[in-house]
């Protein structure tokens, strides 16, 4: 793992910045239902969490708190991204030739996508954040053996 420690940032502060960035992006991908991007971000988050917990002996509650603060601060931005994606799907629907087989399949796929995105918008922020934290810590425990005897969530 490489990390660019800029200026006066300590190694610890740099990893916390990465955790904040990773957790916010993971929540955004979760809300957008972009599974591959979400899993990639969870992997990065798990790796950074494990480093803080095992190499820098950080407290797990503090690490979770930093993730939650970051996700809370970026929640409205994520909602705007979901709205933007819904609008893009609706625009695509209006441009489809409805009388062709391909057009009908695409139309149905866009309707499903819009429905899924609307469900993301109606999800409670706490549930989204809890999902990101659980996924990241479970991945960190499995792949990096951080030794979670007790699950924090």
Can you describe what's shown?
- By secondary structure, the protein is mainly α.
- 78% of the residues lie in helices and 0% in strands.
- The chain has one domain (11-144).
- The chain has helices at 11-32, 35-55, 60-94, 101-122, 125-144.
- Helix 1 runs antiparallel to helix 2, helix 1 (11-32) packs parallel to helix 3 and helix 1 (11-32) packs across helix 5.
- The longest helix is centred in the middle third of the chain and has 35 residues, at 60-94.
- The model has no long low-confidence stretch (mean pLDDT 91).
Structure summarized in a few sentences:
By secondary structure, the chain is mostly helical. The chain contains five helices and no strands.
List keywords for this structure.
153 residues, mainly alpha, elongated
| Main beta sheet strand tally, sense and closure | none
Name the overall outline: elongated
Instruction: Count structural domains.
Output: 1
Figure out the total of helices.
5
Q: What is the element string, with H for helices and E for strands?
A: HHHHH
- Secondary-structure content class: mainly alpha
Content of β-strand: under 5%
The number of strands is 0
Unreliable segments of 5+ consecutive residues: none
Helicity level: over 70%
Radius of gyration: 19 Å
The whole-number mean of residue pLDDT values reads 91
Compute the separation of the termini in Å.
Answer: 27 Å
Give the SSE layout.
Elements: H1 11-32, H2 35-55, H3 60-94, H4 101-122, H5 125-144
Helix pairs in contact: 1-2, 1-3, 1-5, 2-5, 3-4, 3-5
